[in-house]
Amino acid sequence: xxxxxxxxxxxxxxxxxxxxxxxxxLSMRGGRDLKVGLxxxxxxxxGKSPYDNISDANRPLFRYAPGMTIIQYPFMLKSxxxxxxxxxxxxxxxxxxxxxxxxxxxxxxxxxxxLMLLRLIPPRxxxxxxxxxxxxxxxxxxxxxxxxxxxxxxxxxxxFLLTALLLFKEKRSFFSAVYFCLALTVYSPLLxxxxxxxxxxxxxxxxxxxxxxxxVFFLVPSxxxxxxxxxxxxxxxxxxxxxxxxxxxSYAAYLDLRVSNQSLPGAIGRLLAPGGTTNFHYIIxxxxxxxxxxxxxxxxxxxxxxxxxxTTVWKSAVWRGPKDSRAGLAYxxxxxxxxxxxxxxxxxxWAWTFVFYFAALDYAGRADLPPxxxxxxxxxxxxxxxxxxxxxxxxLKVISxxxxxxxxxxxxxxxxxxxx
Length: 420
Description:
Layout: H1 2-29, H2 34-45, H3 68-72, E1 80-81, E2 92-93, H4 96-120, H5 126-139, H6 141-149, H7 154-169, H8 173-186, H9 193-201, H10 205-225, H11 227-246, H12 264-272, H13 286-318, H14 330-340, H15 353-364, H16 371-390, H17 394-398, H18 401-418
Antiparallel strand pairs: 1-2
């Protein structure tokens, strides 16, 4: 009992200090990444494309679906955009109320995400579940705080996704699909989860998903923007933010090797196309690099799909016994895909790691599961945690330490899912 009380005091003290310190950081940084969302809102309010970037025509600042401007419009408050210039396309005045309103929304999203995680992966006891969640949040602090201090939006995307997963688990597929589409509005690489939903529902989820797409991407935005303007924005989003990456035929078409990019394409690119961010030296041709990335990505996706099928569909159909604890590993396995597979994924998106750690700790606490698998998961989780703590060392960014340690944890979860 004393240990539990001491840990709780430590946890809430750490959280209180982190919340206050992040608030101070926010007031100093001025909502760095929130400006992108509010820029999109301002552009749409003036009947312009949010995907225009006067400082770099080939790289839109706003990369989200048009509906993201509806989500962030309530956070404009007193923010007013300053006339942009070629050197400073984003400058606002009066942003502080917007920054702290968004910060509060993110804190609420984290708290609700944690509660939903407890229902998605039910612990053996309430006390054990809360302990694992608190430990997981502490381990995720390096990038949770970095995400919050930059006023980013990936925690909101996670909240929408976990809501969709919980509603799906409760057999409320239509509402699940709506929240899933909201998650896609914020972060489109989460589309990989459609495979999870399709496998679990044996394909029936597609009908709810189509309805969700219609409501979130067409019906509601058209009611707000008008049908013609919404169609224009959707086309702009696809042409400027989606197509250049998803439909590319060569690695040279989407090369972005800034060290903040810790996705698998970035990690492989730094191995096979070294030379900084502009003057690349291709060890093999860009087409060959693209092929390597696509083949590896397909293999990773197929193995992840097999995890869902083997730990849920197959076991329920063949064993018809008690629910297997390994089914909870499918959530972080697919969440890691949304980090690893995009052409560009900046490292503060690893704020999601508390989901990974929670699943690993839950698995490790199950007496009926193989000890070797528990040791492997805890070791892989420890390596990822150490990587997130050391990522600010430039040399470790260059060698993509976060990407490779995440891939190792993904492989560990896949392996233990296959064990008998």
